[in-house]
Amino acid sequence: MHYRKNGGINLKKAIISITLVFLTSVSALAAKNPMIAFGAEGHGGMTDMRHESGDNSAEWSKAYSYGGGLFLEKAFNDYFAFHTGVSYSNYLIKYSIPDFDRTSELSLDAIKVPMSFNLMLPANVVSFVIPVGLSYTNIFRAYQSDKISTGSKTYDYIYSIEANQFSAFSGLELRFRTSAGFDFFIGGYGEYFITEIAASGMSPSEDHILNYYGKAGIILRTF
Questions:
Q1: Long-range CB contacts (< 8 A, 24+ apart) of 125-128?
Q2: What value, to the nearest 5°, has the Cα angle with vertex 16 and ends 11 and 17?
Q3: What's the first-to-final CA gap in the chain, in angstroms?
Q4: H/E element holding 91?
Q5: How far apart are CA 126 and CA 198, in angstroms?
Q6: Up-side HSE of residue 123: CA atoms within 13 Å toward CB?
Q7: Closest CA to 210 of 6, 36, 65
Q8: Which of 4, 78, 146, 202 is buried most, with the most CB atoms less than 10 Å from its CB?
Q9: Per-residue pLDDT of the chain (223 residues; tens, 9 = 90+)
Q10: What pLDDT was estimated at residue 88?
Q11: What is the DSSP letter of 202?
């Protein structure tokens, strides 16, 4: 198994370190400020590619993404909050090159840190939340599988992509309040990766990931 030397991370150590820092921060913040909430989420959806410029010999197909993570939220009042966290995501990208009679699947494993400001429209039981934010994503593992007329092969593709990605996202959440201090939520989101997927000089075209996904989870309120 190979990892990118510049910009890649060791998955096991990263998850342990980030989880410890996250839990320590949540405990400290919750003790000092009652307007802190934290929780866990799972997400899944559809991936696509947006071709911006250059050679367009590749034909992109829709595929899927999935993952999950932890988050915390600092409410300033009943209407505005700051949201951040850490999550794992897998993105599958499919494309074909008709001139070479080849179809390919690119699987990306990534750690993501989203940051957003949330507009909240509170109600007694169901509240609406509109997040607007940016995410930093580190792709730590990438494998590509190619199928051609003579067979197929899978190989490490981490050196051909840009491991450090930035994206913009927004969406709509529904939060269901309970009397026990827990909220349940579901939502739909759209995300555009501002950073080009290919590493510098590795592709004659400029292409960016699009991700449309749903998310569900639980929130523990300290207020």
A1: 125/176, 125/177, 126/174, 126/175, 126/176, 126/177, 127/174, 127/175, 127/177, 128/172, 128/173, 128/174, 128/175
A2: 100
A3: 45
A4: strand 80-97
A5: 42
A6: 8
A7: 65
A8: 4
A9: 333 344 444 555 655 565 566 556 655 555 555 688 999 999 999 999 887 766 666 778 899 999 999 999 989 888 999 999 999 999 999 888 777 777 889 999 999 999 999 999 987 789 999 999 999 999 999 999 988 777 788 889 888 899 999 999 999 999 998 877 889 999 999 999 999 988 876 666 688 999 999 999 999 987 7
A10: 97
A11: S
Look up residue 47 and give its two tokens.
């991936």
- Number of Cβ within 10 Å of residue 193's Cβ equals 23
User: Alpha carbon of 172 to those of 140, 176, 188, 214: distances in Å?
Assistant: 29, 13, 6, 10
Tokens 């989870």 correspond to: 217
Cβ atoms within 10 Å, residue 176? 13
Give the pLDDT confidence score for residue 3 in this predicted structure: 34
Report how far apart, in Å, the C-alpha atoms of 30 and of each of 133, 175, 178, 182 are: 23, 20, 19, 15
Phi/psi at 157 (nearest 5 deg)? -120, 10
Structural tokens at position 81: 């909050």
Structure token digits, residue 33: 């400020």
Q: How many residues does the chain have?
A: 223
CB atoms within 10 A of CB 210: 16
